[in-house]
């Protein structure tokens, strides 16, 4: 495949995603629908919403730390491969 084709394909996919994302968001705004889900009201009233938010923050922070550590390991391997002349000796 050519570079020109890939650029065109990525541009078309981006426009397609933008159109579908906007349309889906517009369809979700149905008048007369419930303002806030009942589950969110119950969690907020009992104070458990903070536990849910804390769990989500911990999970996202853990993923971020993992990705940073993985990036550092890959960078170290790339530097070592560059010094030693590549992986295929």
From TrEMBL:
A family per Pfam: CcmD_alt
The superkingdom listed in its UniProt entry is: Bacteria
This protein's UniProt keywords: Membrane, Signal, Transmembrane, Transmembrane helix
Annotated InterPro entries = Put_ccm
Query: Hey, what's the signal peptide range on this chain?
Result: 1-28
The transmembrane segments are 50-70
Check the record and name the NCBIfam families matching this protein.
Answer: CcmD_alt_fam (TIGR04391)
Stated name of the protein: CcmD family protein
Task: State the organism named in the record.
Answer: Hymenobacter nivis
